[in-house]
């Protein structure tokens, strides 16, 4: 009888970050695996990053490193805007950006408008540390098309945060000038738009294109950078447009207890390596 | 007869970044695959990052993103030291750090001491854009044990750069206090040590331990951060110790034509997110 060493069952999630690069995370459990009306939704548990939500093959959020991304998405604008009261989050159905937005006492109403109800449901079922803020009395969670919502709300918001999936399929329009023009119309005079604009190594054309298109609409546009381990290359960018204010300037206190963001990090995030400055022209 | 869609031959390099996380890069060609006296050495060509050198399963260098790492390893110390003339690189057999060091006109002699002659050979054979500096008349390339070399060179160097592999096997000692004490003895009065100290997400104990051990030996110790896409999590740290000078202060011009480093980046690199400040205590 042949004696073979005992082998373990292994499960791995492989994210195709580009056609030629993959990130693999060991899986201990598959918690949800469904096709929603809009996308494939997967929730797994992993030893490395805790619970992970994946949409159409792309990692959206992990319990362990989500703070790096959500703190930057919220506080770069909310600590620079002089008095943010009404905030709109486009996408962001996991609730992480909403949680950070609502840490600002100035905020009276925060709208989370995500097209996919199932993302919101999965966040409530598996990511309580992210979705907790959805029950805040200042939160308005609307499962609908953000484009429609923006058209109906002119000059209404202080800050619009575009917390979208990658620029493919139904989310592609969220990285283009016509959408930015709609956001511009929905913003008050001191308004800020913040967009996640991908990695300069895995998607240089997206970074450059988004900044170019933001500039067509907003008089002031800057790019900030931040670490985000589970997003492709770990090197993430945030495009910010305003109607005149400099987003690199800090005007309000940071919420207490942040783990990634600080006023010092705010200012440092706008310092770009020379190659990235060249990339956005 | 069964008709099946044509399938392509695929080759992938999978780097086990931790026990529970992998980075995969598509391979077009295997250029070298040998066991040296010290480690497994692999050189592959990839569509995503160009040529890649792998030692004992860990990616050391890729043509496309090496500048992010090598510019930081060299210029953080060389732009802060008032007059760096003699520089020692421990490890770094690919030549990338040496290339950046020799961009400083003040440098009269730069020693590259790598224990593995085969790494130097592979760099010369496949990475001409890194190994080019080995032929500079100021370069001294020595395939030998750096520990021995340091013992024989007291109060000799302005800057020592520890460009080592991960802290396992023969490189483990390079992250500990006795080694740092040897480096301290080999440094002149204004001396700097720079060490790559891994990622706070994939190896938090290494970051914290290296800083703790540097502090046992050097009166001034600071941590800097930088993006490095193909290293685990893309979030890299650089531990710097001096005999008194503040390494966050810039004292000399940056070389022209850098792509990652600038004086602004230098200052911003020492701004740490709150969670990382806590980690190093």
From TrEMBL, chains A, B:
Root EC class: transferase
EC number: 2.5.1.16
GO terms under cellular component: cytosol
Functional summary from the UniProt entry: Catalyzes the irreversible transfer of a propylamine group from the amino donor S-adenosylmethioninamine (decarboxy-AdoMet) to putrescine (1,4-diaminobutane) to yield spermidine.
GO molecular function per UniProt: spermidine synthase activity
Occurrences of domain PABS (ranges): 10-243
Pfam families xrefs: Spermine_synt_N, Spermine_synth
Residues that bind spermidine: 70, 94, 163-166
List of residues binding S-methyl-5'-thioadenosine: 39, 114, 145-146
Top-rank lineage group of the source organism: Bacteria
Subunit relationships: Homodimer or homotetramer.
Pathway the protein acts in: Amine and polyamine biosynthesis; spermidine biosynthesis; spermidine from putrescine: step 1/1
Record-given protein name: Polyamine aminopropyltransferase
Keyword Signal: no
A single GO BP: spermidine biosynthetic process
Signal peptide residue numbers: none
InterPro entries registered for this protein in UniProt: PABS, PABS_CS, SAM-dependent_MTases_sf, Spermi_synthase, Spermidine_synt_N, Spermidine_synt_N_sf
Active-site residues, Swiss-Prot/TrEMBL: 163
The keyword Transferase is assigned to this record: yes
Family assignment from sequence similarity: Belongs to the spermidine/spermine synthase family.
Catalysed reaction equations from the record: S-adenosyl 3-(methylsulfanyl)propylamine + putrescine = S-methyl-5'-thioadenosine + spermidine + H(+)
HAMAP family assigned to the protein according to its UniProt record, in alphabetical order: Spermidine_synth
